[in-house]
Design goal:
P-typ_ATPase_IB, elongated, 20% strand, 7-stranded mixed beta sheet, disordered N terminus, cell membrane, alpha+beta
């Protein structure tokens, strides 16, 4: 089916009502069935000053509540008149359900039916039932037996039996149930969209020695951005000067403000509570952390998990069952009342809607606690995996390597070697490179001019200094790939590796000129995290590393919960181990943070990236830990498993309750009105139960 896009020459958007802090927009363009209301409301809610957005596609209106009388209206109209292709769904979706006014009207109409003259009750009820009958007929022709056909059949049978009050009362209850069902889904979506914090539309930067205001789309990497009290940090960057207390709750879920000072990295979306910062922009616009989070969340509103697809299939298959039971009861008893009572029972509403409500509520609570789940599939998979693989550096360890030893050969000094290695590593984002650069800065060394830099992932760096080739990397890279002997430092390398240190070899013009050693530290929470993960159902914990065996096993010796350890791996080796475990029938999650982890992150059933991970790793992962610790991993696992239990309970409650009602209705124990009331009440109760899914378990046992 071809999608209909809203274009400027379509019906105009009008402001039909406005009071301070609130206005309503209306247009026939908003009734376009291909338009995604979740996307549109998220697009508007992301504007600074917007407090709440409500969209009703049935009436073609949007209500915006805001805290200022700024140029919001013009900005919103501009956005709505230029909607991107992403605002339209690949499949036509149904319009929104009834609003509270419609529910009240139908309830009042049902209540007055018995008091109308008998001659008016029939025409009044037929007119009232017409939308339901038309919807049922359209659905039967276009989609087959669905819940709309059941609803229409109950109304038609009541009208045929001239039981007008029952028919109208059932219609009122169906309307009320539809309202609560849509409200539950909308509230779950709103929870998720609340993680989309408004983006700054302008920022202060230093230009030619003066502070100037520029629009956010004019910001460039390298700009010096000024952020004061009450302002949102609009870029990802490095603090150059100043100190401040930063509330980063919208990014990391951490409730307590963090202290930012020169040398610290700050993320877009944080709010400065006290102080002032000068920040060098490292990422701007669509590349910032908040922009990426927003994109993930927009996509997550549309994704369906395997459980959701399965529940939809099951619900659709149960509709013909209800219809068949109703026909069977009528054939056996000749009672249209019993048949109508059976048809008033529908499995599909609770089964279909409980899943998105529970999943999106869980995703919201995970986000508030510092774990970003990219869609329902990530949540479902995280709850079902049984094997967890860690890349060592930056996950189980801090990844903040410190340079501890420099063994300079020939006539080189330590400073000369360090400057040479730092120059080659200057633009490489690996933890080893960062440690070398940090050590050079601490010694105030001037780096030599470097050219023709070539990064060999998981091996090292090749660069030219004064037309001389410099190599910095692992022994495998220097000795096996480049053919440079490292035998002269065998004794020293053995000793350093026995101390659990990582080795870095430096070669110049085809000869080894230095051996460097670095040490990483184990995360303090690593041991408790592994124990908690085992308790949560993981049956196998694996550690992988590209480092040499000795430092890897020095870390493994401190983590007794590990079942398997591999060292000296290339990126493709890590992905191969993931594939091997999957072929053994295991469901695998992989935790990493580097560019070289991306193949494994993509190969795993669930890829999990640490907060300080490289951009490529963050994009490849389905789960991002927004705090720099492992506790979020345990919390996310608990939320995922709790959500699975909620969905299981909701499903079988819906099946059990409605099956019981079918039996009662078919045997004539309950009337049509009672059957409809009990069915709709149970549906609302199940949705309320799904909406209470908060995953309140602690990250680590106290």
């Amino acid at each position: 089916m071809t999608r209909i896009r809203y274009m400027p020459d379509n019906p105009p958007i009008q402001v039909v009502h406005s009071i301070p802090g609130r206005f309503r927009l209306k247009s026939r363009a908003f009734t376009n069935p291909a338009l995604d209301p979740d996307y549109v409301t998220a697009l508007i809610a992301s504007l600074p000053g917007v407090q709440q957005v409500r969209m009703n596609t049935g009436s073609g209106s949007i209500v915006v509540e805001h805290d200022t009388e700024s140029s919001l209206r013009e900005e919103i109209l501009l956005r709505l008149n230029n909607l991107p292709q992403d605002a339209f769904l690949p499949e036509i979706r149904r319009r929104s359900g009834p609003d509270l006014f419609e529910v009240g009207t139908r309830t009042m109409a049902a209540a007055i039916t018995p008091f109308l003259p008998r001659s008016l009750q029939g025409p009044f009820s037929w007119v009232l039932s017409l939308p339901t009958l038309v919807s049922g007929a359209e659905t039967l022709i276009t989609e087959g037996l669905k819940v709309e056909v059941l609803d229409a059949s109950v109304r038609l049978m009541s009208l045929a039996r001239k039981n007008y009050f029952v028919g109208n009362a059932v219609g009122a209850m169906l309307s009320m149930a539809a309202y609560f069902e849509e409200s539950s889904t909308r509230q779950a979506n709103d929870l998720l969209k609340n993680l989309l914090r408004p983006q700054a539309d302008s920022l202060r930067v230093e230009r030619d020695g003066a502070e100037v205001m520029i629009s956010s789309d004019q910001a460039m990497v390298g700009d010096i951005v000024i952020c004061g009290p009450g302002e949102m940090i609009p870029v990802d960057g490095l603090v150059l000067s100043g100190e401040a207390s930063v509330n980063a709750c919208s990014i990391t879920g951490e409730s307590a403000p963090v202290h930012a000072s020169p040398g610290d990295e700050v993320l877009s979306g944080g709010i400065i509570e006290e102080g002032k910062l000068r920040v060098e922009a490292l990422n701007v616009g669509r590349e910032t952390s908040m922009a990426r989070i927003g994109k993930f969340l927009e996509k997550s509103l549309r994704t369906q998990s395997g459980h959701q697809r399965w529940s939809h299939t099951l619900a659709d298959r149960l509709v013909p069952l209800t219809f068949g039971v109703g026909l069977g009861v009528y054939a056996l008893t000749g009672s249209a009342a019993r048949a109508a009572s059976v048809l008033a029972v529908d499995y599909s509403c609770a089964i279909k809607l409980a899943t998105p409500v529970a999943v999106r509520t869980a995703m919201y609570h995970a986000g508030r606690k510092g774990v970003l789940l990219k869609g329902a599939q990530a949540l479902e998979a995280l709850g079902s995996v049984d094997t967890l693989i860690f890349d060592k550096t930056g996950t189980l360890t801090h990844g903040l390597l410190q340079l501890t030893d420099i063994l300079a050969l020939e006539n080189f000094t330590e400073d000369e070697i360090l400057a040479l290695a730092a120059g080659a590593e200057e633009h490489y984002g690996h933890p080893v490179a960062r440690a070398v650069l940090k050590a050079a800065r601490e010694r105030n060394l001037s780096l030599p001019p470097i050219s023709q830099v070539d990064f060999i992932v998981a091996h090292g760096v090749s660069a030219y200094v004064d037309e001389k080739r410099v190599l910095v990397g692992s022994r495998h890279f220097i000795e096996e790939d480049e053919g440079i002997s490292c035998a002269d430092v065998n004794e020293q390398s053995e000793s350093l590796q026995d101390q659990g240190k990582t080795l870095l070899y430096v070669a110049l013009e085809g000869r080894l000129v230095a051996l460097m050693a670095l040490r990483d530290t184990l995360r303090s929470e690593a041991g408790d995290t592994l124990k908690a993960l085992k308790a949560s159902g993981f049956t196998r914990l694996v550690m992988l590393s590209g480092d040499q065996p000795r430092p890897v096993h020095a870390v493994a010796d401190q983590l007794t919960e590990l079942d398997e350890v591999h060292a000296g791996l290339k990126p493709e080796d890590k992905a191969r181990i993931v594939d091997r475990l999957k072929k053994e029938g295991r469901k695998v999650a992989f935790v990493g943070d580097g560019v070289n982890d991306s193949p494994a992150l993509l190969s795993a059933d669930v890829g999990i990236c640490m907060s300080e991970g490289a951009d490529l790793a963050r994009d490849a992962a389905q789960v991002v830990l927004m705090k720099d610790d492992l506790e979020g991993l345990v919390m996310a696992r608990n939320i995922a498993r709790d959500t699975g239990r909620v969905l299981h309970n909701a499903l079988w409650s819906a099946v059990g309750i409605n099956s019981g009602l079918l039996v009662l209705a078919g045997t004539g124990r309950i009337s049509t009105l009672t059957s409809a009331a009990l069915h709709n009440a149970s549906t609302i109760a199940i949705l309320a139960y799904a909406a209470m899914n908060k995953g309140e378990q602690d990250a680590l046992p106290s």
